[in-house]
Amino acid sequence: MRIYLDHNATTPLDPLAADRMVQAMRDVWGNASSVHHFGQQAKAALDQARGQVASLIGADASEVVFTAGGTESDNIAIRGAADALEVSGRTHLVVSAIEHEAVLNTAKALAKRGWRVTLVPVDASGIVSIDRLRDAVTDDTALVSVMHANNEIGTIQPIAALAAIAHERGALFHTDAVQSAGKIGIDVRALGVDLLTIAGHKFYGPKGTGALWVRRGVRLITPITGGRQERSRRAGTENVPALVGFGVAAELTARKTIDDQPRLAALRDRLEAGILASVSGTERNGAAAPRVANTTNISIDRIEAESILIGLDLAGIAVSSGSACSSGTLEPSHVLKAMGLPHHRTLGSIRFSFGTSNTDADVDRVLAVLPPLVEKLRSLTTVGGRK
Fold first, then answer.
1. Which residues carry out catalysis?
2. Superfamily of structural domain 3-10+259-380
3. Residue 330 has pLDDT above 80, yes or no
4. What is the tens place of the pLDDT at every residue in 100-156?
5. Omega of the bond prior to 223 within 30 degrees of 0, cis?
6. Fold match between 3-10+259-380 and 15-256?
7. Quick one: residue 149, left, alpha or beta (phi over 0 = left, psi -120 to 50 = alpha)?
8. Which CATH architecture describes the domain 15-256?
9. pLDDT, tens digit, for every residue of 42-56?
10. pTM of the entire structure?
């Protein structure tokens, strides 16, 4: 039996979403931009999916732009806003230091072409300070981007308050909600943001699907040029079957997955408490609250994370050491570094992220396997000159 505790990396495709996708691939194969029957059939399927996704975040369907995923949505939001506002003289971008690389590397790309970029630091809580953001935003700030929930430690940011600060200076506000959609309720109006990113594969939809919510009246110059699909904001023929699955997953998430979060929080808390009690030299990373229900990040002293991951995988337990998009790098987590954690804690951090299929038996298995594994690895491994 294998146990999957890496749902922040991706989630399994919901069976109903998969069935609807297969049906669409077989029966709804027209181009949604065509005016004939087959094209209008595809457009109707696309419109239904757009409405389902909009309902998940409390938006109007006309404001939802379909993309190929969270990274593309982040790029369209940040590059699109930057290109639209550059002519006004606003060439300052503010992002938090714990953003996903889709945001951080886009900010670096803007810096190379002359933009001023400010990284807002965080403390050990992993929560962006309202006062620090206020100090960072100036009259030439074009856009502020702060993620809704962090992918590595799960902390939830005070987005509504942060967005209000950006608006006081006339700046737009974007939030990457990839890790919060499907875990907490989202209402784009209540958040007060201008742009919001989600991705289907994080809540049991297909990979390669995403959306960017664009508040009506916000002007973007899209970095993807071509046809006039998606109201000229994302050129290219839409992948109708995949987006049908995206829509189904969004509807299912709104109906049942969010309701499952208290159960997942109980599983997370029991696992977290069990590890901290049974394994010496362990600490939870980031604030206990506010945090999404399914995520815990724990540092295990005197062992490199890779050794723990391999040991757990051999025991049939899948976890991660942070963002899946950073796998393969030898660098410690930029999120934990930004929080000011000492080097040994960043090297030995493990993320457990629960999903709807997880049970108490999964927690029991991890708590049975992890303590002896850590003891064995510590007897064999030296990290940072300590054993």
1. 325
2. Aspartate Aminotransferase, domain 1 (3.90.1150.10)
3. no
4. 999 999 999 999 999 999 999 999 999 999 999 999 999 999 999 999 999 999 999
5. no
6. no
7. beta
8. 3-Layer(aba) Sandwich (3.40)
9. 999 999 999 999 999
10. 0.95
